[in-house]
Amino acid sequence: MYHRSSWMTEDLDLFRSEFRNFLSRDLAPHVNRWRGKKMVDRSAWLALGDMGALLPSIPEAYGGLGASFATDAAIFEDLESIVPEVNSGVVISSGIVAHYIAAYGSGEQKRRWLPGMARGELVGAIAMTEPAAGSDLKGIRTTAQRQAGSYIINGQKTFITNGHSADLIIVAARTGGPGSGGISLLVYETRDNAGFKRGRNLDKIGLNASDTSELFFDDAFVPAENLLGAEEGQGFVQLMQQLPRERLILAINAVASMERAIEITIDYARQRTAFASKIIEFQNTSFKLAECRTYATVARTFIDQCVERQISGNLDPISAAMAKWWCTEKQMQVIDECLQIHGGYGYMQEYPIGRMFVDARIQKIYGGTNEIMKMLIARSL
Question: Structural domain tally of the chain?
Answer without folding.
Answer: 3
